[in-house]
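Chain A, query sequence.
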Amino acid sequence: MLDFYGLSNLFATITNLGISFLVYTKGRSSKLAKIWAVFTLCVAIYGFGGFMASGAKNYDSAFFWWRFSYVGVILLPALFTHFVYTFLEIRRSVLVNIVYFMTIIIWFANIFSKSLFIGNVTLIFTDSKWFTPAWFVYPPGPFHIFHTIVLYFVLLTYLFVRLVLAYKHSDPLKRTQIKYFTIAMVLGFYGGGCSYLPCFGINIYPIPNITVPLYTFLIGFAIIRHQLMGIDVIIKRTLVFTGLLVSVFAMLILPTLLIQEYILRAASTSSRTIGLTISGIIIILTMRRIENFLVNITDKYLFQKKYDYKELLKIFTAEVLTLLELDKLLNLTVEKLTDTVRIDLCAIVLADKETGMLNIAAEKGENKLISMLPAKEDITRLISMGKGYELLKDSLLIPMVLHGEMTGVVLLGKKRSDESYTQDDLDILLPLAKTLAIAISNAELFAELGKAHAEASQREKMAVLGTLAAGMAHEIRNPITTIKIFTEFLKEKKDDPNFIEKFEKLVPKEVEKINHMITSLLEFSKPADGTIMEKVDVKAALKEVVDISGNEMILNDIILEDNISGIPQVYGNKKHIQEIFFNLIENAIHSIGRRGKIIISVEDTGSSVKIYIKDTGRGISEDNISHIFEPFFTTKMDSKGVGLGLYVIKQLIVRMEGGIEVKSEPAKGATFILRFKKA
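Chain A, predicted structure.
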C-alpha cells in the first residue's frame, strides 16, 4: 500500500527547504523576502514532521514527530499575517503584534505541555485498501482547537479578504502578484488544512495535501515571472548556474557511461580514464555555448521584461534630449523607447496649441491603440483624479506636462514579454516624459527663433536692397539713354546699313544688361529654402552677388579683387551662401566708405574650404570683436542696422556644418574667414 500522505509531506519538505534557502540567501536585504523564507522553512518543518509521524512505529514516536511538526505549523498564521501586511504596505501593525503574542503562547504550550495542544495521537486508516495506516492528532487539546478556529479559519479568511480588496485598487503588476500569491496560498492552506480533518474525527484521507508542494512551485513562478519579493534577477542567475551544473554533470557522466558500455566494454581503470577525458573535452568545447543558451532561454521566457534603466537614461541625456530639431527629436525618442523598453508600439501625441486636439507627431510599431486614445480633457481629468497612468489595455499613457499644462502624451504599447507596467517603470518614465516636454518646447522655440531670424534677415536684406535699387538707377540709366538715342534716330537712319548694324548690336545688349540686373535683384530678394542642401559652385554664387553690389562699389570707388578661381564645390544652401557673401560685402563697403579695396581669396584645407573676405575699412575694436555675432549688437551710429546681420550669418553657416571667425586691426580693416564643408 502507498504511503501517499508521507510522500507528499516529504516532497513539500524538499521544495520548501529549497525555496526558503534561496529566498533568504539571495533576498536577505528585503524584509518581505526574510519573512517568506521563515514561512517556507516552517512549512518544511511541518512537512518533515508529518512525513515522520505518518510512518511512525509507535505512539511515542508519532507524538514526538507531530509535536515537532507543529513547531512550524503554529507559526504559519502569524508569519502569513506579517507577510500580507508588509506586502500590502499596511502600516498599522496592532493585529500583527496580537497574532504573534497568541502564537508564542500556543507555541510554548506545544513544547512544554502534552495535553494543552497535541492532546493525543491515533492510528487511523488501518482498514484502507489503498493507503497505509497513519498517525494523526486526535483528539486535539484546547489550544489546538483555538489555533484551528481563530488563527486559521477566522484570521486567514480576513487576510484573504484584505488581499481581494487590495487587488481592486492596485497597479497592474501588484494585481498580478496578488493573484498568484492568493491562488498559491489557497492551494497551500487548503492542502495543509485537510490534514486537520482527522484531528476532529473526520476520517477522510488527506489526499489534497499534495497541493502543499504545488503552492511552492506557484510562488516560485511568481517570484521569477512577476517580481514577487524583488529578487527575480538573482533567481535568474541561480537558474542559469543550476542549469550549467546539471549540464556539466550530464556531460561528465553520460559520455563516460556510454564509452564504457558500448565502446570499450570494460570496467577497467583505463576505460574510465578515457571516458572522463573525452567528457572533459566535450565540456570545454561546449560550456560557453551552453551558458549562452541558458541565459538566452531565461531572458526570453522569464526575464524579457527587464531593461536597463541606466541605459535608457544614458541614451536620452546623450542622444535624444540634446536635439533641437523637432522631427529628429520625436522620431529618435520613439525609436529608442521602442528598442530599449522592448515594446510593440510607441507614439508621441502632441496637443495642438490652438484647438487643444491631440495629434500623432511621431510613432513606431503597430498602430492599434491610437484609435482608443482618450481626449485631452479626459486624460487630464483621469490623472488629476489619481486614476493612474495605465488608461489603455496593456499599454501606458504618460502625460507630458510643462508649466502645469499638458502638452501631449507618450503612448507605450504592450511589452513584448506580455508583462504589465510596474511602479519601477513609472519611476523612470515619468521624469523622462517631463524632461521630454521641456526638450520638445525648446525645439519648438528654436524653430520659431529660426523663423524669426530668417524673417529679420529678410527684412534687413530688403532694406539694403532698397538702397541698392536706388543706386542701380544710375547704372540702368546709361543703357536706357543708349536705347533712347538709337530709337530717336531710327526713323531717319533706318536705311543706313551702318546704323542698323550698330542698333542690332548695341540695343539688345543694353536691354540684356538691364534685364540681368533686375533679375539678379529680384532673385536675390526671394527668401531661401533652408531645407535644400546641395553642392554649391561658390564662384558662380559670388558672381551673382557681385552683380548686385558691384554698382555700389563703383559709386564709392571700391575695388574688388577676386582670387577664387579653381575653388572646389562646397556643401550647403546656395541662397544662404549668397546671403552670407552679400551681408559681408555690404558690411565691408560700409566700413570702407570711399576709396578702398575688398579682397576675396580661398584656401583648400582638404576636408573643407576656407574663404577669406578682407577689407581696408576702419576695422573692429577689441572691445567689440567678441560681441559682433551677438543678436542686436551693432556699431552703426546712424541706426540703419538692427544688429542681426552677423548673427544671422553665423546661424546660417553653422546650420551648413561650417564655421566663421574674424580678425581685425583698428584703422587697417577686418578679415572674415568662412569655413565650408567640401562637397
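Residues 106 and 143 are 6 Å apart (CA to CA). The longest helix spans residues 423-490.
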